[in-house]
Amino acid sequence: MLTTRYVTGAPNWLDLGTPDLPGAESFYGTLFGWRFRSAGPEAGGYGMFRLDDRTVAGGMTVPPDQAPPGWMVYFRTPDADATAAAVRESGGTVLFEPMDVFDLGRMAVFTDPGGAGFAVWQPGTLQGLEVVNDPHSLCWTELYTHDPAASMAFYGTVLGMESSAVPWPDGTGTYILLNPAGGGDDSSFGGVVPLAAEPAEADEGPYWMPCFEVPDTDTTAARAERLGGSVRLAPTEMGGVGRFARLTDPYGARFAVVTSTPAEQP
Questions:
Q1: Beta strand pairing status for 117-123 and 105-111?
Q2: Edge-to-edge, what's the strand order for the sheet holding 35-38?
Q3: What is the pLDDT of residue 201?
Q4: pLDDT 10s digits, 187-219
Q5: Alpha carbons 155 and 194: distance in angstroms, whole number
Q6: Neighbour tally for 67: CB within 10 Å
Q7: Which band of pLDDT confidence, cut at 50, 70 and 90, is reported for residue 3?
Q8: Strand order in the sheet with 162-167
């Protein structure tokens, strides 16, 4: 599971690029109770989405001619420059070279060989998000890809990720879990979904999707639609996991929500 005791290869940051930051602030504020706090003029408009005075994500304005709206998942690295070199050597692309963000840390942005965008964060004074797994915070990530095997080989090389195929609790198939090196399934932070199994997602190509824990998936999906978002996958019961839905905000940024099934007590 995700934890704020961040380790190499696991997600440690998340941010939203949107053409309308005030509109996104209104949408996520109403949907999740988030409030946006600017990081100051020196940060170029970047700021933090906060929930109960804890950072749940970052956000910034990105003009449509620069990039489409979307969520970016960051993974912890001890050395952003070494990771950038590994990305190049493994067939990925460096979109933004490693750069210092004040004394907070060092970041870089890439695409994997299939075209999915991702980023890394080398912590300085900022280790990462201040809350995960709680209601209305990040609880899971998924990679949608045309070639799961090639993707896992890439991320294993550049970030040390490990993967394992596990059966769904209801016996309907298997699912590929992702975890940091040596962590085992108990430390899993995400999964891999073949785009061939999700035709509705395939048209826009490979991507990383964040998933947020919510108290009620159906209520959240209906509210997102009322606020101008859309439902890409209607609320669906995922056996042994919880009730899951894929959504977009009003500007097209894709994300998911889940109401997790409570863990069985020993």
A1: antiparallel
A2: 35-38, 47-51, 54-61, 11-18, 70-76, 117-123, 105-111, 93-101
A3: 83
A4: 899 999 999 888 878 788 999 999 999 999 999
A5: 16
A6: 14
A7: confident
A8: 162-167, 174-179, 190-194, 138-145, 207-213, 254-260, 242-248, 230-238
Burial (CB count <10 Å: 0-12, 13-18, 19+), residue 35: middle
Does the pLDDT at position 170 exceed 70? Answer: no
Which string of b and e fits 117-150 if b means at least 16 CB within 10 Å?
bbbbbbbeebbbbbbbeeebbbbbbbbbbebbee
- Cα-based angle 113, 115, 119 (whole degrees, multiple of 5): 90
pLDDT at res. 263: 64
Q: Rounded distance, CA 104 to CA 71, Å?
A: 20
* Residues β-bridged to residue 218: none
Instruction: Evaluate whether 109 touches 64 at the Cβ level (below 8 Å).
Output: no
Rounded to whole angstroms, the Cα distance separating 152 from 161 reads: 8
